[in-house]
Every structure is written in structure tokens, then in C-alpha cells.
Amino acid sequence: MALLCWLGEEVPEDKKPSELHLYYSHFVEHSPDTHQFVIDGIMYANKKFRQVNSKITWNSVNGYFSRKGYIPHPSRSPCSVDLKVLPSRQYFDDCNIDIELVGFVNSDVRRYRKLDSRRGDLMSFPILEWSKQDCLDFVKNIIGWYPAIYDLKDECGKDLFSHNNCLPCKNMHPKQLALVGRYYPQHAKAAEETAKKVGGYWGRDADMPDIFKCDVCERM
């Protein structure tokens, strides 16, 4: 969203793209206010650009794992490939996208180097020097708000969730899964039901009982 706002506010009118494509893979496991946030971004884009084409796909990792009959190991991400990467690549090819703008920030340098080496001139990273907080401040000023998950902090002010991705994600560590149980209990319940259905487990420890139980909640 910060990248979209940058494009709308910082790029001169004569330099803005004649046609803008917005592609978003929505998951029911995202935080509850995420979809509305995206809709607000699309509404903003329609006010700022001459031609906007938007596409939202609806997905569920719980549904995907149920259909596959297993929860993948953290080292493999067929869910991301099948539900996000391949459909987005197909959309870009179908629409003849000539350049893809990627909203990586300064904490994404490792991801940037890995991705940039593969995509070359097809990608641009215009806000790579921004911090995550720069993005949140900018978006709040332009859009007026952002999903509440970004304001969840620990006692030291560190983000509880590094990204607004699936809740839970199969790659999460036990402490992260416990946080899903604490802040998003309905998401945790759905994930537990999926694990029971397929005989699998979430995270990195198959022997971890009550993976979504938050010890802080137990002490309250």
C-alpha cells in the first residue's frame, strides 16, 4: 500500500503510468480488516490514475491443505506457489505487464537481492530505502488507516507479527503460533480443525502440545 501511495503522491502526473494493474491474493486467514484496507487502496488508485485494472483472488490455506491432505513442512511452500505466485505470474503475462513495482523496504534487503537476481529489468523497487514505520506513517496520512495487526507490539515495542500474512502460517515458531491463539482465536480454531482433519501439525515442532495456547492468557 505504501508503494501505491508513493506512486500516487510522489510521482509527477506526466510520469505516472498510463495504465495501472493492482493484483491482490486475499486469504481468509489474513487479519480481519485486511480486505477492506485493500478495497480502500483500490478506491484511492481510481482517484489518482487514469486507468486502473484490479483483480482480487480469494483463497484459503486451510482449504488448500484440506484438499491436499497434509500441512507442508516449513521448508516447502506449495501454498504460496500455487495460490499466489503462479496465478500472479499468469495475470502479468496475460495483461502484458512491462514492469512490476515491488514494495520491498530496507528490512527486505535479503529478499530483494534474491528476487532482483532472477527478475532483472522486469522489476523496480522504488521504496527500498524506506523503513516499515515510514510506510505505516505515509499510508496513514494518505489512506487514513492501516490494519490493526501492525500496531500489535511487545513490551519492548517490537512487532508481534512481522508481516500481515496468513494467521497462522505453517512456517511459524511456537511463540508466534501462541500469539495467533491469543489475538486471533477464530483463526487458530480453524487451523486446529485442519490439523486434526489431515493428521498434520502447524509450525516446526510436531511434539508441541496445545500449540495455539498462549501462556500469557493462562496467567491472566
Topology, pairings included?
Blueprint: H1 2-9, E1 20-27, H2 34-48, E2 52-59, H3 61-68, H4 78-94, E3 100-101, H5 109-119, E4 123-124, H6 132-142, H7 174-183, H8 185-198, H9 215-219
Parallel strand pairs: 1-2, 3-4
Helix pairs in contact: 1-2, 1-6, 3-8, 7-8
In one word, what is the shape?
globular
Low-confidence segments, ≥5 residues, pLDDT <50? Answer: 216-220
**Estimated structural class:** mainly alpha
Distance between the termini: 36 Å
Mean pLDDT: 90
Characterize the biggest β-sheet: 2 strands, parallel
Approximately what portion of the residues adopt beta-strand conformation? 5-15%
Please give the share of residues in helix. 40-55%
Please tally the β strands and state the result: 4
- Radius of gyration in whole Å, from Cα? 19 Å
**What string gives the helices and strands in order?**
HEHEHHEHEHHHH
What count of domains describes the coordinates?
Answer: 1
Number of helices: 9
Structural summary, described in words:
The longest helix has 17 residues, at 78-94. Helix 5 (109-119) links the parallel strand 3 and strand 4. The protein is mainly α and 220 residues long. It has helices at residues 2-9, 34-48, 61-68, 78-94, 109-119, 132-142, 174-183, 185-198, 215-219, and strands spanning 20-27, 52-59, 100-101, 123-124. The strands form 2 sheets. Strands 1-2 form a two-stranded parallel sheet. Strands 3-4 form a two-stranded parallel sheet. The chain has one domain (2-219). Helix 1 packs parallel to helix 2 (34-48) and helix 1 packs across helix 6 (132-142).
